[in-house]
Design brief:
about 250 residues; alpha+beta; Rossmann fold; Tumour Suppressor Smad4; six-stranded antiparallel β-sheet; 16 strands
Length: about 250
Amino acid sequence: MASDAPVAQTACDTLVKLHGNAPPENADVIVALGGDGFMLKTLHEAVDLALPVYGMNRGTVGFLMNEYHEDGLLARLEAAEEEIINPLSMTAMDRDGAVHKALAINEVSLLRAGPQAARLKISVDGRQRLAELVCDGALVSTPAGSTAYNYSAHGPILPIGSDVLALTAIAAFRPRRWQGALLPSGAKVRFDVLEADKRPVMADADSISCPDIQWVEIQTEPSIRHKILFDPGHGLEERLISEQFT
């Protein structure tokens, strides 16, 4: 499978000529050609098939991808190491009362959708933890997604086996120095949007967006297991450690 980028389509044509192809329902493994965004899309689409996904980078960053090589693909697949990732589930209610659900492998983020800063109340496992966060937004990240938007927002990089989530503020104005929190992976995080009519907020789960939200609940979904394949010595744990020394 390949993204629409010309370089990914060319790679796909080359590999299909070498190895053939099959529909996902008849496959043992999916080889995804593209960038991290395409990898996330492929993982979401493959979850019901319970298939592992081996990515090769034909995009930009490629944090979730292996290096692209035309030769030796079958041997690389046989030697690949599997990482299991549990996504986040997002449940959000908008101002019209409609409830939206989505899954996120990287993070669920809340972002102001107007000229004024958002005002958010944060609760964890039913207990209010922050009565008011005035900010451009906030996010909850998995360890696998901690080097993406979370890291850009100055959140911590989480080891892949740490069983924690990162709750990170985006451009916090009040409390000005509040950077966020580390939470157990089983925690349920709830954001209530204060003054939602005056200060609109959108929620985003791996690019699935919900506008004009009133509240959002986020928690790990342990029943869903995404399988990612990496070349030996280049798995997520090594990548997350290496990222902290670059």
